[in-house]
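Why does residue order matter? Because the sequence determines the fold. Keep that principle in mind as you read this record.
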Amino acid sequence: MITFSPGPSKVYDQVAEYLQDAFNQGILSANHRSATFMNLYQETETLIKEKLHVPEDYKLLFTSSATENWEIIAQSIVERASYHIYSGSFGKKWLSFASHLNPETESLKLDTETALDVASLDIDEKFDLIAITQNETSNATEVSNELIAELGQKYPNKMIAVDTTSSMAGIELDFTLADIWYASVQKCFGLPAGLGILILSPKAIEKCNHKGEAGRYNSLSFILENAANYQTHYTPNVLGIYLLKRSLEDRPEIQETDHLLRERMRILENTIAQSEKLMMLVQNPETRSKTVMGISGKEEFIKEIKAEAEKAGMQMGSGYGPLKPTSFRIANFPAISDAEFDKLIKFLKEY
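Structure:
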């Protein structure tokens, strides 16, 4: 069965080999204060910077999940309040976490078909951080690098934090445009769930030090203190970090992956455009995700096509929340092979 679910999603075929190597090399028993682990951390950070084009002076941190990063940002970086820009369920959940810690938190909800209008934004000085969901898994929308750049130009004194949970390692992101980026490995990284990634600029680290929040299990100051020695503040998912390192070694630089996924999206868009019963969930190409494909139709037909896909050996991702009955989602992630993608397109064209 090929899974096209947008998360947890299909892992790279080479993961079986990586797992065996991890066992043979003793990685599963490696102490997280040992030289073995510290070297693993350092090598993984170097590869992230090399393959994803992350600036050299940014810092890679490991957490349990993208969700944990919501709390870390709110408690350890935001000094006054954060302003959240989102269009779907996961952006709303980030807002909810932040609001629980700081009732002054406010937000702007975007329509899925309307691109962010930076010129019309009026974000008060009391907000020292802008939180933006770059790729919204629930409704297959995105905010472009260009719009994030505009946001930074308009508000140069505000910290910008970006949720790229379902796009990091899939599309090329300009990490210089924001100070905080995060993701999980079970989507475009093509790995098993259980590892979060948090990337910080020197400016974000300085802001954390200025706030001085400490004393919690996941206080950012504690995480950074350990990371300075390529260690973690908790007993980490050593296997997950090893798998990330091995996978990055085998992956091309991000511009190649970005080109592949954009071409696949173009093929899918053309395929759906020829269908009489299906349509793209997001009609506006400017707000449509490149890594999560949302497809909509009548409820009975969506139910039918998902069942037929399973008979053909393919599992579609269900629509999320209120969109579940009338849509399905397809992960346009790098771990999907060309043969698997071709099988999907053939199925959609013939059904």
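The chain has a mean pLDDT of 96.
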